[in-house]
Amino acid sequence: MVVSSLQSPVTYPIHSLPAPAASSSYPVEHQPRRAAIAADHLNMVFRSGGGSYPALSDVQLRVPSGIVQLLMGPSGSGKTTLLSILAGILTPTDGAVHLLGEDITQMSRRELARFRLENIGFIFQGFNLFPALTAAENVELALKTKGVSRRFARKEALDLLEQVGLADKAKQLPKNLSGGQKQRVAIARALASDPPLIMADEPTAALDSHSGHAVIDLLCRLAKERDRTVLMVTHDPRIIDVADRVLYLEDGKLTQTPQS
Amino acid sequence: MASVARKNLFEDIPRFLVAQAGIMFAVSLVTIQTGILNGFSRSTSALIDDSEVDIWVSAEEMVNLQLTLPIPAATVSEIHAMDGVEQAEAFISRTTTWRSPTGDIAPVQMIGFDPASRMFRMGQLTEGAIANLQEPYTVIPDRANLGALGLDEVGQSASINSLPVTITGFTRGTQSIASSAYVFASLRTANAYLNSGLTTTSNCQLEGDRLTCSNMFERDASDIALDPPRALRGSDGITFVMVKAQPGQDLNVLSRRIEAEFDGMVAHTQTELSTLTRNYWVGSTGIGFVLGLGAGVGVVVGVVIVSQILYASVVDHMKEFGTLKAMGASDWMIYRIIIEQALWMAILGYIPSIALCGGLGWWTFATQGITILITPGTAVVVLGITVGMCVVSALFAIQKVTHVDPAIVFKA
Ligand SMILES: Nc1ncnc2c1ncn2[C@@H]1O[C@H](COP(=O)(O)OP(=O)(O)OP(=O)(O)O)[C@@H](O)[C@H]1O
Ligand SMILES: [Mg+2]
User: Fold this and answer.
1) According to the model, what pLDDT value does residue B171 have?
2) What's residue A19's pLDDT?
3) pLDDT below 50 — which residues of chain A?
């Protein structure tokens, strides 16, 4: 399988990397490689209370491997719905989704869960950290879920927290961290076991613009270092400059440029 | 790796304490009810269990240790003479009426045995000595019955069937909760009390090679002389013959031989008589049902409390569980977290409960003379019940998690 070539062992060659630039941006012109994410003729119709609501219509997209792809659009346009389908969390009404060359729409629930576990790191608007676990324990839990042994999980969690600049906060509970710090813990968690895909839904929505920017810079830098593919839903126009590509969603339809 | 289950549990301390109090209540209820049942059941057969009798021979109508018909004392020597029997002794157990020093009457269970016996043990003595019973018209009651018998110290006098009686010691912890107050006496003394005012005639006939005897008891109101009690005659009524078998004898075979030899009699091993007696009292009093009901209520209360707490905890962490599911964690991993949480609740509720019940058992025995018997077996069974209770409670929370839609993770 092609996927395996993307999966690196659980050690990170991060120490030898240069410090991040104060304001980093990545070139938009990018040599497209193999599509990490591909969707064909996606339709999603929500049925509730007798009525039906078409949230996505005939969505067609290709996200090349190793880029930062933004998905923008007004509220209610279907961004979260599309992300959920592309992540294999929601099943589309029809259409196909290929991740890393595999057709996830053909997978069973169990196979999908396994695929997500091995290949996708998630970042959420609301952080979704276990409030009773410390920063390090939250990352450890993800590592353990992914099958990393107890012994290595601790050390790796601390490594990851160091990479997101939170080595000194490892023992803090989420309630003692700022929003930006919480999101950095979530980034460390998403990077656990180094998945080839990272999917984020409005990761900056709960953050002020300064820490929002810092978080996005960090995420993009770490993804680039690892040659990972990032699909990020956002409202935040200030993020555009860090992205390699931007797609717009309006009324469930995908466009290259904003209509409004 | 830190345990998510444990951390979730301790996250909200007040809620945790409420849960633990509930579990402790439930576990204690189950333990105490079981302990009372054990204590009750054990007390009814304590005399049998503490003795070193191999076989108990009685009239075939025998229902339990305390309820049977008399058999002639002559049986003792006849059984003693049998092959395979090392020792045979008479045992008397019958109800009679006690008149306290203040004149109040009470039913008592008169228990007569040979004070020199090495087979029968009347239990732990707190005052006096068994040998004191050789003195005519002396008895040893159990401390548990001081109130019922109107007694407070050794040396006091009362009367049984209008014969005087002197207290020469006290036992402790021998009393059956189901029976009238035990009063221990020598065979002679017991016989004198039970037959005072009665004359007995015995009618024996030889039919072929078999001797059949019938006893006739008649009241004789004029018999008031207080002579030292006489030795038992062959025609006197006793209740059991206690048999010690020679080493190496098969007790079941010996029992059948005794039954074949003596018409109208039945022979039971110690275990058989003990079980018979326990089952009779547990069954006839309905105590097993009543206490079982109490224990059942405890379990139900426990399940309700634990499931509420677990359910609330799971609902609180829906987003995190959803996140785990979105990440691709298997259902089983999430169930494990919830079940582990349930097990922690079980263990942390169980340990203090058992300690509490142990203390309570000790206190009730010391102050009330009531035995709440918490055996290691009981402790293990209650632990099993507690764990079962908590795991069953976890099922409600588990089905909630099973239906969580991982799509909720993207909802802010
Ligand atoms: N489970 C559902 N059942 C019915 N309708 C739904 C469901 N989920 C989403 N929708 C509808 O689909 C449309 C797209 O929703 P979605 O959450 O994808 O929007 P969005 O672009 O992420 O908006 P926002 O920027 O506010 O997060 C909305 O009109 C929403 O009401
Ligand atoms: Mg959304």
Assistant:
1) 92
2) 38
3) 1-33
Long-range CB pairs of B374-383, under 8 A, 24+ apart, other chains included: B374/B31, B374/B34, B374/B35, B374/B38, B375/B38, B378/B31, B378/B34, B378/B35, B378/B38, B379/B31, B379/B354, B381/B34, B382/B27, B382/B30, B382/B31, B382/B34, B382/B350, B382/B353, B382/B354, B383/B350
Q: Does B263 touch chain A (CB under 8 A)?
A: no
Residue contact A113–B325, C-beta within 8 A: yes
Alpha carbons A13 and A16: distance in angstroms, whole number: 6
Write the DSSP assignment of B36-103 as a string of letters.
Answer: HHHHHHHHHHHHHHHS--SEEEEETT--BTTB---EETHHHHHHHTSTTEEEEEEEEEEEEEEE-TTS
Question: Which residue CA neighbors atom 12 of ligand 1 most closely?
Answer: A55
Determine the distance separating the centroid of ligand 2 and the alpha carbon of A247, expressed in angstroms.
15
Q: Convert the pLDDT of each residue in B73-93 to its tens digit.
A: 999 999 999 999 999 999 999
String of DSSP letters for A126-179: T----TTS-HHHHHHHHHHHTT--HHHHHHHHHHHHHHTT-GGGTT--GGGS-H
Domains of chain A: 65-88+117-255 (3.40.50.300)
Contact (Cβ atoms closer than 8 angstroms) between residue B208 and residue B19: no
Higher pLDDT, residue B287 or B2: B287
The reply to whether ligand 1 has any atom less than 6 angstroms from the CB of A46 is yes
- Round to whole Å and give the CA distance between A186 and A165: 12
Please name the amino acid found at residue B127: E
Dump pLDDT digits (tens) for A89-111. Answer: 999 999 999 999 999 999 998 99
Tell me the average pLDDT across B24-47: 88
